[in-house]
Design brief:
With 259 residues, the chain is an alpha/beta fold. It contains seven helices and seven strands. The model has no long low-confidence stretch (mean pLDDT 93). The protein binds nicotinamide-adenine-dinucleotide. InterPro entries: NAD(P)-bd_dom_sf (IPR036291), SDR_fam (IPR002347).
């Protein structure tokens, strides 16, 4: 993907999982990357690994649901690298899983704030820096927000992920005049750290959340995907190889959502 060389990307959730793999991949393509994440140690680890592999990276401490921090992250990126071409709005959480009747409103809000408001803020604050030269924005939704609604207790998560798809389409329409493309990716189960703050399956069963979805049993490989497979799709959407693709949601799930 030669057109990515020397261009600049900001990646949220770059300290772990899909964001980390995408940051490594984009840096490998010659992009200068800004690694945005809440967790200091993870951000710094990704940066060290990129630099050790000969790439260029900076880090910013960001909570994507905080408007000022998001604005500062973009300012810092453009101050350092003098341009912005790609945004990967990827940071997200499972949040608290609970049946609707037991879901605390503040837990609902938190999931929506990080996953949905965070996406809005990342696109909003990217526009001033991209509207002259165009660019590509990729948003990490999920099969749970678009095609597969099977995770009991995950209403807040699924609602946020569905909202991201609607947001992607509206943003693509609005930003086409600036030659900014906006696409959503919808992964199935991918081996990452996203479950670390979520109750394990055995505990969910105890609180009567039936875990009825066949997590990870993807027809293509009979296993969950890995972040590097998602990173390949992000690089494609970031590059001119996808120059006529905008406003879409792309499934990357080994046919999990068709079960
Ligand atoms: P992960 O937990 O491995 O990585 C997420 C990263 O985001 C972490 O480094 C975390 O510190 C960071 N983060 C969390 N909240 C943040 C905030 N408020 N501000 C900034 N950074 C924050 O998880 P992952 O699986 O790589 O998740 C990335 C995205 O992929 C999420 O949007 C998730 O919903 C989506 N997704 C994951 C799967 C899966 O099976 N892993 C499936 C579909 C969609």
């Amino acid at each position: 993907l030669p057109d990515l060389k020397d261009k600049v990307a900001l990646i949220t959730g770059a300290g772990s999982g899909i964001g980390r793999a995408a940051a490594m991949m984009l840096a490998q393509q010659g992009m200068k990357v800004c690694l945005a994440d809440l967790k200091d140690d993870r951000r710094e680890q990704t940066k060290q690994d990129i630099i050790a592999a000969g790439g260029q990276a900076i880090t910013v401490d960001v909570d994507v649901s905080n408007p000022n921090r998001v604005a500062q992250a973009f300012e810092q990126t453009v101050k350092t690298w003098e341009r912005l071409d790609v945004v990967f709005a990827n940071a997200g959480i499972n949040g608290v899983l609970a049946p609707i009747e037991d879901m605390k409103p503040e837990d609902w809000d938190h999931t929506l704030f990080v996953n949905l408001k965070g996406t809005f803020l990342c696109v909003k604050h990217a526009i001033p820096y991209m509207k002259e030269g165009g660019g590509s924005i990729v948003i990490t939704s999920s099969i749970n927000g678009s095609r597969s609604f099977s995770g009991f207790g995950m209403t807040a998560y699924s609602t946020s992920k569905a909202g991201q798809v609607a947001f992607t389409k509206m943003a693509a329409l609005e930003l086409a005049r600036y030659k900014i493309r906006v696409n959503a990716i919808c992964p199935g189960s991918i081996k990452t750290n996203i479950g670390e703050n979520t109750l394990p399956t055995s505990e969910l069963e105890k609180i009567k959340i039936p875990v009825n979805y066949p997590q990870g049993s993807q027809p293509l490989d009979h296993a969950p995907g890995v972040p590097e497979q998602v990173a390949d799709l992000v690089a494609f959407l970031a590059s001119n190889a996808s120059s006529h693709i905008t406003g879409t949601e792309l499934f990357i799930d080994g046919a999990e959502s068709l079960l």
